[in-house]
Amino acid sequence: MTDVSPKGLSPKQASERVALSITSRNRKEARFLFLGQLAVAVAMGFLILLFAGILNKGMPGFFQYYVALDVRLDAGRLDPTNQMTLESLAGGDFDGVIRDSLYQALGNPEGRKAKREARRLISSGSGQRLMTYVLDHPEHLGSTVSVQFAVDDDVDTFLRGLISREIPEMDRRISDQLIDYIDALDAQGRISYEISDYLFFGSASRDAEMAGIRGALVGSILTLLVCVVIAFPLGVATAVYLEEMAPKNRLTEIIEININNLAAVPSVVFGIMGLAIFIVAFGMPRSIPLVGGVVLALMTLPTIIISSRAAIRAVPPSIRDAALGIGASKIQTIMHHVLPLAMPGILTGTIIGMAQALGETAPLLMIGMVAFIVDVPSGINDPGTVLPVQIFMWADFAERMFIQKTSAAIIILLTFLITMNAAAIFLRKKLERRW
């Protein structure tokens, strides 16, 4: 029997060498597996630290301090013409009624300085809040009701413990007398720490305690609506034509190369293009969701086209051959067989593109959606802003309460982004078919 051991080794020696080789290979594989798991653990650790930092700073932004006052709703002062309309109530002395209630709760302080310090305790927008309450509850006119008003942002900061009373009066933003007023109201149980309704239902405001995301959220929805209405049909139609119907020649190659290049173009370039074409050349208004949606649609189109082409290409050729074999036309094959099977991938790419558009700021800054707009847009032609731009503007303000609300708005934006990505995963799992 011929010995086939390598280099004339005996079978025993060859077996030992093979065993050593297997041991070394297993050790290397285990080391590689450990490094991969370590890399995943490090990435997850950084992700957890990121979210923990955002949550730690942002969760207080969902809450703020309120003071409850017993307000006498004097019909003569609040509704001078007795019409109970917005125009009639606009002439009412809501601020005066609130001041009287505040003075009464503080024991009727005397002197202009004492009253001025007392007025600094509550938000300057309290009159608007009381007007809204009267509009919603006209049956309460003539009675005394307890209404909660947001405290001023400096008072809120003090109540959070971020301003120490041990600091000398000249070095802090609130006076000793104002601190005494806060303590008096707190002792009466009038001050409470509750979920901020201003954050969700308020709009843009220079006063931190009144600022909210309602206008920006509506603007984001309108802008994304315009974006998806334009980008989705155009992107899918382009992908179908290039993948199924266009001849393979030099022109289509140039088109495909340019689509791939557009996917890598910085988003601010699309903003400059929107500024030059839609606003300067076409004279469209600045800061409206229509222009913002069109700009984001142009930015999102390459992503939708590329993902849609990949989904269409993944449909097995046998599906097309079977449809054509039983007499279906080219269009019928595409519409009845190819597109339904490619739709999970198309929808996934579209939703991811929309999520990317939702978080964009630079192109919208270029077309003026950074304007300070108090009113909530009611249509795509009304001035508005979007959530990322609102976050950008809040981050530029110096008040500490804006920092907390900025972090809270970031959490809301991340929630929308995670929801959209989760929807993409769900649709892909729900609709996909395996061959």
Low-pLDDT runs: none
CATH-defined superfamily of the largest domain: MetI-like
Mean pLDDT: 87
From the 3D coordinates, which CATH architecture of the largest domain would you assign? Orthogonal Bundle
Please tell me about this protein's structure.
- With 435 residues, the protein is mostly helical.
- It folds into 3 domains: 6-59; 62-206, no CATH class; 214-431, MetI-like fold (Orthogonal Bundle).
- It is built from 18 helices and 3 strands.
- The chain has a 3-stranded antiparallel sheet.
- Helix 12 crosses helix 13 and helix 13 (289-313) crosses helix 15.
- The longest helix is centred in the N-terminal third of the chain and has 48 residues, at 11-58.
- The mean pLDDT is 87.
Describe the structure concisely.
The protein is mainly alpha-helical and 435 residues long.
Write the SSE topology:
Blueprint: H1 11-58, E1 63-72, H2 75-78, H3 86-90, H4 94-105, H5 112-119, H6 126-136, E2 144-150, H7 153-159, H8 176-187, E3 191-195, H9 197-201, H10 214-245, H11 250-262, H12 267-281, H13 289-313, H14 317-325, H15 330-358, H16 362-366, H17 387-395, H18 400-431
Antiparallel strand pairs: 1-2, 1-3
Helix pairs in contact: 1-18, 10-13, 10-15, 10-17, 12-13, 13-15, 14-15, 15-18, 17-18
